[in-house]
Amino acid sequence: MYLKTRMLVAAACMTFASLANADSTNDLVQALVSKGVLTEEEGALLTKGHNSEVEVQKKKEKKHWTGHVNIRGYVQNRSTKLFGDDGDNPANPVDLWSDRSVGTDRSINSDKNFLIRRARVIIFGDWGDRLSYYIQPDFASSTSDTGNVAQLRDAYGDVYITKDRVHRVRVGQSKVPYGFENLQSSSNRLSMDRVDAMNSAVRDERDTGAFYYYTPENVQAMFEEISKLGLKHSGNYGMLGAGWYNGQGANRGDSNDNWHFVARATYPWKTESGQIYEAGIQGYTGDYVRTGSAYRRTATTSTTPTLEDGNNGKYRNGFKDERVGVSFMMYPQPFGLQAEWNWGKTPGLDIASNTIRQESLNGGYVQAMYKIDNFKFLDTDGTLIPFVKWQYFDGYNKAETNAPKNQVNDWEWGVEWQIAPEVELMAEYHHMKRNNLVTGNRAGIKDYQSFDADALRVQLQYNF
Questions:
Q1: Range(s) of the domain holding residue 21
Q2: CA 101, CA 80: separation in Å to the nearest integer?
Q3: Residue 47's pLDDT is what?
Q4: How far is CA 184 from CA 7, 79, 134, 187, 205, in A?
Q5: Low-confidence residues of the chain, pLDDT below 50?
Q6: Residue 30: its pLDDT value, please?
Q7: Nearest Cα to Cα of residue 118 among 382, 424, 428, 384
Q8: Mind giving me the DSSP string for 169-226?
Q9: Do 34 and 119 share a domain, yes or no?
Q10: What is the helix (H) or strand (E) element at residue 288, kind and residue range?
Q11: What is the pLDDT of residue 442?
């Protein structure tokens, strides 16, 4: 009789287990114990075995799904109005190197008005305890005369040497840890474009390589606090970072079997008043292989710049490409300051001799801003951040065709209105005094000439 009862109970448990979850199975066993069908010892034995199976399954799930696959992104829509010369006058071409939505370039001119500047979707998350991944394509890139072409921006994994995430190694295509503004996401940066002096260091701010980051737990906590306060941080690129990368820029392979090396140190701190500051220093070194093609054109002739010592000289495998820079940030609480400057050596075009030579550069920017929270308009309750920015550059853009000289002395006055977390509206008045770096071999146009221009630029950004 006892054996028969045990068999019936076992069958009942199997039947109910196929229909019930962990909690209902345990409840069933407890009910059988209370009715006297099972002894307490038998009930404990059954629930112990079931609980063990549940724990094993949970461990398996945790091992393979520590986190979830996350998807987010943003889209930037821009419109630009140039005052005076709209950039179509062949005698005085106007082009903004950092944003081809300004001027005579193919992206926009007097016959076009709106431009999708960026359209990015980011796939990211954790896999187990030792890996985080990040993949970001941009669907608003351009090639030839075609816009809105998909191009890879980021594709990397962070391998955690320690589970507290203090030590990690990042491998793949990612941002090179140089500067503060360069590391800021375009969706998070205050002004529309990064300054030439810092952004010319790394084409598209990215390259393929391997980087080590050291971020103590207290610094991790400070980075998270800055981000949660909406203070436009650069992201966690370590308190200390160093690594090797190809050196030719994003989506481009190495050209001379010579790695670039970069190192960066940054430290955030908070005063007793609650004001947060951050200061950093960074530098990189390597050999860069410049690109070259006809840079000057008349009706019958064209010329191509040569290396200083010829193609078989000491610059055959690239020019010395090295910089050192400093960064400072006083986060807007509500008033803020942001400043960076760098110095270095780079390949540069000497138009008079039609040669690419080793040249020096220096430049940076200073930006002041004021953060106004709880800005109410109609039924919105957002954040308003007016700002003013000055940038200067006396150098060369190595990644542009023929590494032309670039002299910049610009002012920007603007305001960002964060209507809601999902919508941001930004407008700025941009006074430009700089060189035109867009060549195009256009007949009757002198390339790389200086120009002055004023523009009103507006951007609407969607975050999702």
A1: 2-61
A2: 7
A3: 66
A4: 66, 22, 16, 8, 10
A5: 1-22, 63-65, 107-110, 294, 297-301, 311-312
A6: 75
A7: 424
A8: EEEEEEE-S--SGGGS-TTT-SSSS--HHHHTTSGGGEEEEEEEEE--HHHHHHHHHH
A9: no
A10: strand 276-288
A11: 60
How far apart CA 325 and CA 342 sit, in angstroms, is 4
State residue 97 phi and psi, 5-degree precision. -60, -45
| pLDDT recorded at residue 53 | 58
Q: What is the pLDDT of residue 264?
A: 98
Same-domain pairing of 316 and 376: yes
pLDDT at 400: 86
The reported pLDDT for the residue numbered 149 is 83
Asked whether residue 268 falls in the same domain as residue 306, the answer is yes
Query: Which amino acid would we find at residue 420?
Result: A
C-alpha closest to that of 390 among 335, 340, 345, 330: 340
User: Which letter does DSSP use for residue 13 in this model?
Assistant: H
For the beta carbon of residue 395, count every other beta carbon within 10 angstroms.
26
Cβ burial, residue 414 (10 Å; 0-12/13-18/19+): buried
Q: How many domains are there within the chain?
A: 2
Answer whether residue 74 is part of any domain.
no
The DSSP 8-state label assigned to residue 292 in this structure reads -
Site of tokens 């966690």: 236
Show the tokens assigned to 340.
């960076």
Is residue 67 in some structural domain? no
Residues paired with 376 in a beta bridge: 381
